Amino acid sequence: MINIVILPGDGIGPEVTTEAVRCLELLSRARGLGLRFTGHHFGGAGIDAHGDPLPASTLAACKAANAVLLGAVGGDKWDEAPIRPEAGLLRIRAELGLYANLRPARIYKGLEDASPLRADLAQGTDVLVVRELTGGLYFGARTYSDEAASDLCSYSRPEIERIAHIAFHAARGRRRKLCSVDKANVLATSKLWRKVVSEIAAGYPEVELSHLYVDAAAMALVTRPRDFDVILTENLFGDILSDELSVIGGSIGLLGSASVGGDGPGLFEPIHGSAPPLAGKDVANPAGAIASAAMMLTELGLPECAQLLTVSLERTIEEGHRTADLGGTTRCSEFGARVRDNLRFELARSEAGERRVA
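Structure tokens predicted for 3-isopropylmalate dehydrogenase (358 residues):
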């Protein structure tokens, strides 16, 4: 039995996770995977039900699970709450030791015209952002008053070393190019970052290492995105650059992510927000949640099933099924149903191939 905790969260989170879970249920039945799903409150839903964005019962379930699939958190409803829904997201990353966030971004076949970049610039873009997730400004001490405020950004050598190893290992399995992004001409933390990453590179001679300041990287991503393979960077820079990179493919709704690194379960989520105005209208794009589910399957040691789901998602997009964020009229539930139709086809084709081999 593989136990998966579902955190639907807020806004469109429940809708997109529903479609991803239905795909996983289909795979589980067809391949006897034994996937077991349990839902728990998280984010704003956790505040409403328990007064806490990460209720104790939710955290306990996550720690006992094999993987966690998250929808989205946040919304205007909780702007004046004593604690915001996003605080739960920071806490769960720390509690599960999820220091590495993997955010792949590429151009899907059939969506070349959806990119805001010229086709000759965007076509062929395939980038993996490896973002440090439990350090930096988001986790540093902070002060606030009506007259002044401060946020502490700090990184230790071990924190940088462990995320660098994740990125170099990923690059070794791709095109063997790694760009480390920092602001070493200004920030002390970035100076240490560049020094440590350069030292770690010696253990990966097959990987070509380059360095860019974050402002230069932001420009390069929209002028020559194909030049990048793996981008390694710290928490704040990774958050911003991966969101910038996401729209090159046409919509932030397309992309999934994996947060890993601890001894326990990984956390898998689309990179989009909760989009409260779209909630309950069946217009959200579930592609990012489905892509996240595929990444989860890979992390669970089920790469063939992950590939079947990925191919089914790609075919659905190539067939021209577009949700509102991509200028189309396909409903969220309709898109998910079409992915499952393609998944049934892929499963049948795979089983037929296995019978021929036997």
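The mean pLDDT is 95.
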